[in-house]
Structure formats: structure tokens, C-alpha cells
Amino acid sequence: IASEVAMLFLTILLVVSSEGLRGVLQDTFAYLASYPSLFLLFLLFGFGVAVASSIIHFHLAKRGNATTTPLTCYDCEQQNKSKGSTKNNKKAKRQADNVGILAMEVYFPANYIDQSDLEQYDGVGAGKYTKGLAQEKMSFTGDREDNELAGVTKNGQFFDVAANDYVLFHSPYNKLAQKGFARIVFNDFLRNPTLPQYEKLKKWHGAALEETYYDRELEAASREVSLNMWNRMVEPSCFASRHIGNCYTASVYINLACLVDTARSALHGKRLMLFSYGSGAVGSIFSFRCVRPESTEVAVPAFTVERMSDCLNLTQRLNKRLKRTPEEFNAHMDLRESSHGMKSYTPVQFIESLFPGTYYLVGVDDKHRRKYARKPLNASLSFVALPSPTVAVEPSATSVAALPTSVVPAKPALVEVLVTGVAAGAPGLKSTNLTALLEGVNCIEPVSDAAKTAMVAKNVVQLKKDGAAVRRLPVTSVNETIQLAAPMAVVDLVKDFGLPKSLVEGMDDASACAVAAGLRALQQAGLVAGTVENGWGNWRLTDALATSTGVLFAASFPALDACVKEVSRSYTDPAYEFDRKLLFRLLVQANAQLAQIVGAKGPNAHVNATCAGTTVALTMAQDWIRSGKCQRVVVIAGDVAANETLLPWIGSGFRSLGAASIASNVSDAALPFDSRRNGMLLGSGAVGLVLEAAGASTLQRFPAGSPSVQLVASQLSNSAFHGASLDKEHMAQELNRFLQAVETEHGIPRAVLAAEGVYYSHETCTQATPTSSCSFTELYMLRSAFGDAGLDTLVLANTKAFTGHAMGVSFEEVIAVEGLKRGVLPPVVNFSSHDAHLSPRPLRLSKGGAYPHVKYALRFAAGFGSQIAFTLYMRK
Which residue intervals define the domain Beta-ketoacyl synthase-like N-terminal in the entry (predicted)? Predict the structure, then answer.
């Protein structure tokens, strides 16, 4: 303060003319000479000010020297020490003291893509990015964020890497840092070839350097030798760069921040080496030393690595980002490309998907001036999709219109598809009973002794891996075979539906039950009368409906029942005569049979997507309607794998895989999401669903005000994975893609689906290992899409525990639609023991009964051959 006052006084004197200065001084001293005591007091005051100024300056300088800089420049310290010890230390130029870093912050976008998802999307081999580049996740921006970062480097000298406690690299991708570190260790070996830790590198001693640059064997050996040092010195700083991606100049400092965030007080007294490099073969190396707090004389240090770590909170912040799909990633990149360099542009990315405190672009005016704002610190981060692609584009020079911008038209509105009729032929129930299914009435019953004996006769052998060994476990007694199943009663299409006997005789059992379900669904939809008079059924569509009605039939084992029966009869019946109806049963399946009965002349097909059959067929039906191929589609499915003819064959197949339960009580076998899961139970059945394009004529068939159910969206794909296993990573990717499309096209956020929805699981109760069961992969998929918070609110439902697994027949679809209409859900039966492998917290399993808040039903189906499909229903 005293020095500042003195400087101000001198400044005033300088602006005074020399004559004026002499005059002022003469007058002042003449006045003081007249009063000696006042003159003496003035001198004492001046002396006191000078002493006080010196004392204050000394203490401030001492305090500055003692203040801790948590990360000080190691090179500055060493230079000061060396210069201070020279004879001419008065002339030596010292580096500034306490040069270093007091605080750190890292910015990264709130959106990221998983590299394993990108591998699948790009069609490259698994591990191309995750192992080949050693990257796990990558952050990316939309059209709101355009931060520019820069850094400073400092030249260094040769060094021994072992002299450092930690080494931090510029990391375009993590594998490059691993290779670079290994090369540094190799260089240390060349200078110290006799050290024992370099034993595996001795064959390269004396080799010309240019011959080692592309030596893959040397690279592998160097990485092996340096592995322990890498894990100790480099790995603690790599988490952030693996999860953010290449930040160019910023990456080495992000790694430093990551080390501070994770190591905290463990850094005290440690030396940190930073190595950065770039294009043009330019590199820089410099180092820091982390100062211990106790080395300062200040009671409470203002800056410490612990406070840095608390403020950074880097790991937790990275884990709060929003996971996006490859399609969303591409959409964000396309958005940035299309908006680059534009004027008169307003960004379309929603601010809700930015971190609180983020500075973002508000707009660009017609003079390319950019306006920015900051998202409030108390705002929240939420998952919001990009809006539909309506990107402003500057007109070309040849454009006729003199408009400043033009707009790419959005996609045409999607055709709304309603489910107007449903029916189910459940196992054990002679007639369609949707209420029984919604109540979770058990349809599973003991297998007959004849079927058990037939399965033992098949000489089933289960192969079980035990480490490297494979054990053969033969099934030798009826107690080791399947004990429970859910067969379906035979449908009498002649008596109950009034169909001609000659027509029915040409149907396989699976086709017959599917035809029955289709007829009942058409009847519920009000499209056919469905009356039976004088033995003849009235099931014909009107001429106005016939040409615009399609049929799709799904089955896992179409016509197999008829084939096995015929072959068996040829071996057991001495008077066997070939059945001339066999060809009809094998070729003219339920889709064609139903079309003939009702007169449906639209598109017609059979689909076999194994256990995902019904859901895949519904997806195709929705596409048919939206593409204008027809106005309505009857989707039917039928399988009788649990019936007497096929059970010994199909059941033995699942028994040999170890996927079937051999428990004898339903309460011990049908255990969805339960820790006691021990295998699936086979079922049989049929379903029918009528899908129609929404319109006035459709709604007129139903009472005013009655609820309707819309098939909002559907999606099918193939994981290209193992024929009998689920790929949880691809499932998660596909569900995220599906939900993203739902948000973009229909404006339904996934948070709303979690709060107001039910998930109808594929869960088959299998339990090969804790991390390979259906339930585990499904929960992994759901957690990826909804997060832990969403999973806590989403209701989970299951039907296979009371219907058995009816292969290509999805009772879940019918129950989902009827349940939304009635506002009820089926219960998850027999559950008693929570499985911690599925979730650390209890799952929200349906207890059955009324669930009036449930407005949406999400269905997932999976099938042999990597088939997966999703449907989403909404009550209107």
C-alpha cells in the first residue's frame, strides 16, 4: 500500500513543471523552518512510513513464497536449485517460484456413444474400437456447442521414465499411448541394457533403430515388459480419455485432471511427467511435482489436490452423461455439417440435453455474428431427442427464389395403426378366455407318462462345460426328463366354427388353432358376423373389405405336427395308406386357409422368426399398412410344441441344451425373475390380432367413448450372433434405437414410458449362468435404455410362467392390448426370491389387477437365430 501511495505521489510530481516544483518545495521548507517541532514530526512520520512499508512488503513476500501451489513446475524448481548454487548467483537469472497449477476444470458434452455400439453399427469386428483403439466411449456435440480449446507446451530433454511417479500422454486414442509408453521403455533399455527387467528385450540390443519402428514382435515384447509400469504410472490417468475420445491438445490435460480426480492425496510428493505431441513430428515433455500441504506455513492451504478433485468430480460427471445410439450420433454429426458456416441460423438441438452451466449457441444472424447464452446451473439434464430433420439450407447461386433460407420438408405423417380385435387359444383352455389370461390362471400341467417314456427313449445327452472339460450327462430315467408342459386342447373347427370338414382335414394342428384365433379376432373387430347357422359359419368379409385385407401367419414349427404324425403312422400302422391331404397340410398353411375362409384377397405370407414370430409378424403388418399395401392385416400365430406328438422331439431338444426345467411342481419351475430359476416350460397355443389403419369407418364399429389401442411403433432386427444365445449389447443398442425413433416420430419420451408403462418380458426362466439368462440380458437392455431411475418406475410383466413358452405364439401381445383396454395387468406368478444379479434393488414386478396409470405397453421378443423385435402399444 505504501509503495502504491509513493508511486501516486511521484506521478503527481512528474506532471508539475520544474519551476512549479521548486516553488512548492521552497515554500514548504520555509514554513517548516519556522516551526522546528513540526519539522521534526514530519521527519519521524516519513521514517515510520518507510519502516512499515518494508515490514509489510517482507511479510507479503514471505507469505507468497510459502503459499502452496499444489502442482508446481518441476523443471523450474530444478533450474532455480542449480542456479542458486553457482558462484555468480547474484547474476544468475532465476525462474519464478511456485509456478504451477492451482485449480483445474474439464468440459465435455453431455452426450456420448458407446464404442461397442459403433462397432456393430459400422459393421467392423467386435473389438476394433474397444480393443484395437482401447476406447470405450466417445462424447460428441450437436449444433449448440462449439467450444475451442488451446494449450501450451514446453521443450524438455532426455529422461529416464522410471524417474517419474506418473506419466501422462496426449491420447488421440488410448492404444497409441500404450504403444508410445512401451517405446519409451524400450529407449530406456537401449541406455541400460543390463538391467534385469529388460531381459525379454535383449535380442534387440544393437539393432538399428530404423529396423525396430515397425517390428510387431518388439512392440508386443515392449508392452509386456512395460505392463506393470503402465498399470502403476499411466493407467490411473486414462479413464476420462477412454470415455471422452480424442480431444487433441486438451487430452493430456484431461488426463492430468483425471489423475488428480482419482489419486487425490496419493499424489503428494510425486513427480508427474506430461508428454504431448502433434503433426509435424513436434513433441514436448514437461513435469510437475505435487506439493505436500504440510510444507506450507499457511494454516489452511487455499489450493490442494483434494479440493481440485472435489471440484472436478470427473468420474461421477462422466457417468451422468446421456447414452446415444449410432443413429443419433450420425444425426448430430449431420446436423453440425449442415449448419457449418451458415448465417441466419437457429440451432435445433434441445438445451435440456446439455449439462447445467454449459455455454451454448443461441443463433447466428445474417452477418454471421454468433450469440451465446449459458444454461442455468440449477437446471436439470434430461434425455431429449433431436427434432425431426428440418434443417435450414442457404440457397445456391442459381436459385430462382430470392428467399434467405429454404427448408427441407419433413417426413410425411405416419399412418396410425389400431389394434381392433384380439383373440387367444390358450393351453389347457377349450375356449378363448382373455380374462383368465389377464388373471394369470395357470395353464401348465403334468406331462403324461407316455410322453416321459418317449423322451427317455430318445437317448438325450446334455453336454455341460466344466472349465476346459466337457461332460456328457445322459438322460436315463423319467425323473430326469421334462415333467411339466402346457399343451393345448384340440380345436374343432367343424363343430364350433361351422367350417367344411373337407377343408379342415387339410389343416395341420398348428394351422387349425391359428385359424380359430384369427376368426375370433375378426369377430371381435366387428369385421365378420361369426355366427354358426345350420352347421355353417358366417365368416366372410364384405366385398369392400376383402381386397384391402392381408394375412400373416407366424409359427416356429409349421406343419411339423402333421409330418411327424404321418411318418409315425407309416411305421406303426400295418394297413398304412398315404394320406392325400398331407400335401395340403404341409404347403397350404394357416395364412392361406384363413384367407380362403374369410375371403381376404390382400397380401398374404407366412413368417418364421422362431420365438419372436408373432412380434415380427406384427412389425411386418404395420409396415404393410403404412406403405399402403393394404388397409388391415390379420396376424395369426400357432404352435403346438407341447402337445403329445411334438413334445418328445421338441422337449428333448431343449432338454439336451439344458434349457428346460425338470421340476415337477409349477411353483418350483415357473419362476420369472426369481433367483431360483432353473429352466423353461414348453407351451402350445394360438393368437390372433387385427391391425387396421385408423379412420372414421374403423371407429364407427365400436361404442362411442370405448378405449382403443394403437400400435405406436414396431421394429425388427437380427443380432447376427449365436443361434441360441442373446447378445445383450446389441439388444441394448436396438432398444435405444427403437425408443429414439418413438421419441422423434411420436414425441413420447422414454421417461414417460418408464413412468406410465409396462414392459412385457420375453423372460423364459432359463438360468444357464447368472449373466447369460434371458432375464439378465433383458434387465441389462432396459437399464441401458431407461437407467436405474427409469427401471425403478417401469412395471415388469411376464406370462410364460402360467402359459409356458409357446414358441412363435406371443400371448404377451394379446394380453398387452386387452390389458390396456381394461386397465389391468397379469401378475408375475410364483416370485419369492430377489436375484441380486439382475438388480441391486427389488424390481417393480406386476402384482396383477388394476393398473390405471399404465398407458403404454412395451414388448420385447427374441428367437433362435438372433431374432429380436419390439412393439409399443398405447391406450387412446
Answer: 417-693
Cα–Cα distance measured from residue 594 to residue 503, given in angstroms and rounded to the nearest whole number:
11
pLDDT at 46: 73
CB atoms within 10 A of CB 548: 19
C-alpha neighbours within 13 Å on the C-beta side of residue 802: 22
- Which residue is associated with the grid cell 535383449? 202
- How far is it, in rounded angstroms, from Cα 510 to Cα 427? 12
Among candidates 605, 638, 635, 779, which has minimal Cα distance to 714?
635
Residues in Cβ contact with 342 at an 8 Å cutoff, skipping those fewer than 6 apart: 364, 392, 394
Q: Going by CATH, does the domain composed of 418-875 fall within 3.30.1330.130?
A: no
Segment 199-204 long-range contacts (CB within 8 Å, at least 24 positions apart): 200/224, 200/225, 201/225
Report the relative pairing of strands 604-607 and 536-538 from DSSP bridges: unpaired
The residues pairing with 631 across neighbouring beta strands, listed in sequence order, are: none
Percent of the chain with pLDDT over 70: 81
Torsion of the alpha carbons at 199, 205, 210 and 213, rounded to the nearest 10 = 0
* Helix, strand, coil in percent for the chain, rounding step 5: 40, 20, 40
pLDDT in tens, 42-97: 777 777 777 777 777 666 555 544 455 666 665 566 666 665 555 455 455 555 56
| Per-residue DSSP letter, 651 | I
Q: How far apart are CA 421 and CA 518, in angstroms?
A: 9
What does 377-388 look like in DSSP terms, one character per residue?
TT------PPPP
254 contacts: CB under 8 Å, gap ≥ 6: 106, 240, 241, 244, 247
CA contacts within 13 A on the Cβ side of 307: 13
User: What is the distance between the alpha carbons of residues 521 and 541, in angstroms, rounded to a whole number?
Assistant: 13
| Cα gap 808→682, rounded to integer Å | 11
Q: What angle do CA 453, 459, 460 make, to 5 degrees?
A: 100
Work out the average pLDDT over 343-350: 82
- Our measurement of the distance from residue 237's CA atom to the centroid of its chain's CA atoms, rounded to an integer in Å, reads 25
DSSP one-letter code for 463: E
What secondary structure letter does DSSP report for 237? G
How many CB atoms are located within 10 Å of the residue 24 CB? 12
**418: phi then psi, degrees, rounded to nearest 5:** -105, 150
Q: Are 707 and 875 in contact (CB under 8 A)?
A: yes
Q: Secondary structure of 10-27 in the HEC alphabet?
A: HHHHHCCCHHHHHHHHHH
- Against a cut of 0.70, is the pTM above it? no
Q: Phi and psi for 524 in degrees, rounded to 5?
A: -65, -35
Cell digits for 142?
450437436
Task: Give ∠ CA 615-861-721 in degrees, rounded to 5.
Answer: 115
**Residue position matching grid coordinates 402333421:** 562
Average pLDDT, the chain: 82
Q: Dihedral of CA 75/77/81/83: which sign? A: positive
Higher per-residue confidence, 390 vs 189: 189
Look up residue 727 and give its three cell numbers: 447378445
Query: Do 693 and 631 meet the contact criterion of CB atoms below 8 Å apart?
Result: yes
**pLDDT confidence of 344, banded at 50, 70, 90?**
confident
Residue extents of the structural domains in the chain: 2-66, 111-319, 325-396, 418-875
